[in-house]
């Protein structure tokens, strides 16, 4: 997946590592070196990714800080449960994004280059809340992904038309 366009981080009381340790303690589990390394790696940059892309960036077997694929998949589910990551389905794959320390937002998705563009829209939230109130509905969250073609991909296609090459 392509990198996300940057959203301003929110100020939070705990670091992602501390938040995850709190989550584990509440379930009687302990922090492990592989989990700690994964939290550090994931929160080192703001990007959308799937499990395979994360695994590709990690050290290989026999190298320091190696994390098995099974541990990656299991940990990603735990990070979602702990409120560190959001996950959603896109083109038949589970895509993850940072949740802890970032504001609610939506996405534009380019179906050609697979870039995800993050955006926040107050009018969209107002419309959502108005419609929910009209129906006596209490909103607990939403996910909007608009599919289409980004400016770069739309521009590159136009240049290849025969009439543009004359």
Order of helices and strands: HHHHEEEEHEHH
Global geometry: globular
Radius of gyration: 19 Å
Helix content: 40-55%
Give the class from helix and strand content and strand pairing: alpha+beta
Instruction: Measure the end-to-end span.
Output: 35 Å
Mean pLDDT, to the nearest integer, reads 90
Q: How can the largest sheet be summarized? A: 3 strands, mixed
Unreliably modeled segments: none
Number of helices: 7
Relative strand content: 15-25%
According to DSSP, the number of beta strands is: 5
Strands of the biggest beta sheet: in what spatial order? 4-3-5
Tell me what the structure shows.
The structure is a single chain. With 166 residues, this protein is an alpha+beta fold. The chain is 40% helix and 15% strand. The chain is built from seven helices and five strands, in the order ααααββββαβαα. It has helices at 16-26, 33-42, 51-57, 69-81, 122-134, 151-159, 162-165, and strands at 85-90, 93-98, 106-110, 116-119, 145-148. A three-stranded mixed beta sheet has the order 4-3-5, with no helix packed on it. β1 (85-90) and β2 form a beta hairpin. α2 crosses α4 (69-81). The chain is globular.
């Amino acid at each position: 997946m392509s990198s996300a366009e940057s959203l301003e981080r929110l100020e939070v009381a705990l670091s992602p590592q501390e938040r995850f340790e709190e989550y584990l303690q509440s379930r009687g589990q302990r922090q492990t070196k592989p989990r700690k390394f994964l939290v550090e790696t994931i929160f080192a940059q703001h990007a959308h990714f799937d499990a395979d892309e994360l695994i590709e960036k990690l050290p290989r077997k026999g190298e320091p800080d190696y994390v098995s694929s099974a541990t990656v998949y299991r940990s990603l589910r735990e990070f979602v449960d702990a409120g560190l990551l959001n996950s959603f389905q896109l083109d038949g794959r589970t895509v993850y994004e940072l949740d802890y320390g970032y504001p609610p937002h939506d996405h534009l998705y380019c179906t050609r280059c697979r870039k995800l563009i993050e955006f926040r829209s107050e009018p969209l939230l107002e419309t959502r809340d108005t419609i929910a109130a009209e129906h006596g509905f209490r909103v607990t969250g939403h996910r909007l992904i608009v599919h289409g073609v980004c400016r770069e991909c739309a521009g590159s296609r136009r240049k290849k038309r025969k009439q543009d090459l004359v």
